[in-house]
Amino acid sequence: MTFTTRIKEEITKNDVSKIESIVELSAFIRFTGQIKKDSITLVMENASVARRIYKDIKYNFGINIKIIIRNQKRFRVKQIYILEITEKVDYILESLNILKDGKKVLPEEYFLESVEEKAAFLKGIFLACGSVNDPSSSGYHLEFTSHTKKEGLFISNLLKSFNISSKVIKRGNHFMIYIKSAEVISDIIRLLGATNSFFYFEDIRIYRDHKNMVNRLNNCEIANQEKILKSGLKQLEDINYLKEHDLLGLLDENVLEAIKYRESYPETSLQELADIITTETGRKIGKSGINHYFIKIKKLVEKHQSKSQ
Q1: Cβ pair 193, 202 in contact under 8 A
Q2: Segments making up each domain of the chain, as ranges
Q3: Cα distance between residue 4 and residue 308, in whole Å
Q4: Which residue ranges in the chain fall short of pLDDT 50?
Q5: Which of 22, 178, 16 has the alpha carbon at shortest distance from 113?
Q6: In this structure, what are the phi and psi dihedrals at residue 190, rounded to the nearest 5 degrees?
Q7: Model confidence over 248-285: pLDDT tens digits?
Q8: Domain 3-193 carries which CATH code?
């Protein structure tokens, strides 16, 4: 079972009011229905969605609905559920605000009064044309598909009413409305009323975020260690240069002491070196003091090198 199927099955098991049922049904038929003059055909791959839509139509309009189940053999065998409505077609479409005076109502003309109705409409759209990647896969991705740009912009604006930003792009003969933010996708799943799927998504998202944070910290630690080693090697090079050119006599006792400890502890940071000197000699010195000594060493090396050229 895919994560999308899991969410859709959870949505279909939730109880809704009559108004929400009408709104949800309106969205579903608008975005996936094949509407002709005297028939409405709905094609679905999800048995739970097919049961929900059948129940909603039967409950709200009390008509007979023809059900066809076919086995599709493309890559793998799966069942396709087809609902055919041939009774009260105009009445149903007008009641669902899909048709008015025989003309199709544009998406932007569909008026949703309350937050509950907007959420119900979004549920219907998701059941019709929505999908979400499993959070355990490579990335986060939620999308809706629409036949026209106007429908795509309508979905995007509907999401915007919940303070959710999305992008609309053309893909083949359709338009895709997509979101890649894990936090936003989590909010949408919760908005759809798929509580169990929401907790599943959050558990994996938190685990992945924690894992990424640990990896970043490890990478940072490795980078810092490499920086410390590189700095220590450069300081040892400067010390060896002073020895080779008999220049150590130009340095005071404190700097010479720092040199002795650097040679004994070549892989330590400046702070660690300062702590060691403080512990072993009883002379308190900080990181900045040690750094000052090695700056003196570096300047002496550079001064001698410039004179030698």
Answers
A1: no
A2: 3-193, 218-308
A3: 73
A4: none
A5: 22
A6: -65, -40
A7: 888 888 888 888 888 888 888 888 888 888 888 888 88
A8: 3.10.28.10
